[in-house]
């Protein structure tokens, strides 16, 4: 719990200062009232303020993955939860995680369940992790859940690393190609304009050169408009992603993007199937498992479809039918889920679906990125070729070569 610096007056009117420990500022005020002190000012102590700066920050997934695995090992070895949290806090190499664990341990020591203590730190522990830990605490298999969370976090980071690594070269081409073209239009092309003035007056200037000069002139005068539009679009997208309707439209657009939409959907469904299968394998009821696993998709459209499927299951229907009606899940996956339900082997089928989807999606992603690289090279080469031809043709015409 944080420390608060206070300045207060006693009944005699004498002013006193001090430091007290409390959960919130309201608790600190209540503590002063019990001491018959009238508060003048109450504020977080300097060390508590620095802690708050760390507590509000995100913790790297790799660090969290190690924490989940170590906590599972300690609990499995019979070390009490409070002692395990204290050891991990002392050994943490991440200042942010250490301060978060200090607060989590304090809450647990006060009788708060672990999942509620973690829920107070959404920047470190997302909703999916909190929900799974709650299921593990209530079901008595916390150690297994922590192991699964660690493995899932590692798997997601590995997949993210592969995607980022695959996109580094295409993004490099796009960024530096744009910079080169911009430099050509703004600084290089205008130097040829005086040479082409006479030809333009006679009407002998080729259309490509005219278009290039006009575009260069617009780029020099209105480049700030283009930059402003890009910034405005980025801000608008960020604001839209914070609203339910905006996020729905953005997630729906991601699923419809040609080529990459299928990859995004496959990865989201694979995450959902893996979490759902893991929870069912550990004995969590299917309705509770669905409510937890739906957050693993990271896509509002798919999450809504799964929520509707959960409502139908509560009415006694199977899982495969409402998923099929949502039209968000591929037919082959729905058929496999249906077979798993009929064979009473749904948890293993879901894990197999996740494995197969990830393998297939990795191959599709590699192919898409490999096709993207030469496509970007061709686009950049075509633009540069157009600029060169538009500049050389008038010079060759004036020399009588063409």
Note the topology.
Elements: E1 3-9, E2 15-21, H1 25-34, E3 38-44, H2 46-55, H3 61-76, H4 81-91, H5 95-109, H6 114-119, H7 127-139, H8 142-188, H9 193-202, H10 207-240, H11 244-256, H12 260-281, H13 286-293, H14 300-314, H15 320-325, H16 331-342, H17 346-398
How much of the residues is beta strand, in percent? 5-15%
Strand element count:
3
Structural class: mainly alpha
Fraction of residues in helix = over 70%
Q: What is the averaged pLDDT score?
A: 81
User: What profile does the largest beta sheet have?
Assistant: 3 strands, antiparallel
| Tally of separate helices | 17
Principal-axis shape: extended
- What is the rounded distance between the termini? 83 Å
Can you walk me through this structure?
With 402 residues, the protein is mainly alpha-helical. The chain has helices spanning 25-34, 46-55, 61-76, 81-91, 95-109, 114-119, 127-139, 142-188, 193-202, 207-240, 244-256, 260-281, 286-293, 300-314, 320-325, 331-342, 346-398, and strands spanning 3-9, 15-21, 38-44. A three-stranded antiparallel sheet has the order 2-1-3. The protein is extended and about 95 Å long. The N and C termini lie far apart (83 Å). The mean pLDDT is 81.
Features:
17 helices; 402 residues; mainly alpha; single chain
Tell me briefly what this model is.
By secondary structure, the protein is mostly helical. 75% of the residues lie in helices and 5% in strands.
